Amino acid sequence: MERYSRITNKNQREIVLLKAKPCAWGKCRFCDYIDDNSENIPEMIRLNREVLSNVTGEFGVLEVIDSASCFELPEETLWDIKKVIQKCGIKKLFFESHWMYRRRLDEMREYFGIPIVYKIGVETFDNDFRENYLNKHADFKEPEEVAAYFDSPCLMVGIKGQTREMIARDIKILKNNFKLGTINVYTDNTTDVKKDPELIQWFAKEYGWLVEDPAVEVLFENTDFGVGD
Q1: Burial tier of 203 (Cβ tally within 10 Å: 0-12, 13-18, 19+)
Q2: Domain Elp3/MiaA/NifB-like radical SAM core, which positions (predicted)?
């Protein structure tokens, strides 16, 4: 499992994949990422400290991800991140959080004392598909509700059951309402949610221009950021 990497093209930054406590929701139909959760706090702290020791501050920007939300990281790990920020001169932090924590985001901003870019796994702005099929437990109705709290939505494309129209609408919303975003091309995993190869092929052709868009990061593989397995 790779847990440290450097992103050197768009939005240059270092990125670490840390271990967290179990996801507070943990019921998204498509997600087996939560298998990286742990309840062994001492082991989590030790591993996370080891991973964070790789950070150099080269870009002054650090992204911290885990298999839940940033709020599921141990308190000791949050303190270790704070020390790395101070030691390495980190000026901006990327975090990811579930919708349920939207009213607590400023807690992290106050704790770390630097700007935080908050990502959120929206997956799709199609409310029916997101809630009734993917079981995301993010009950917003309009993109403006998301933009009021979060800076950078993460979308998923290429799932069986999605349509071209849904994807086109999602990308239009992303470009019109947010300064940054990530698009993840779905990869089959251990869940019953499956990819749609034909839809993925269409997306790659129709939206290939996004690869050059400085505001959107497209991940054709879930390890394209250099972390994960």
Answers
A1: buried
A2: 13-213
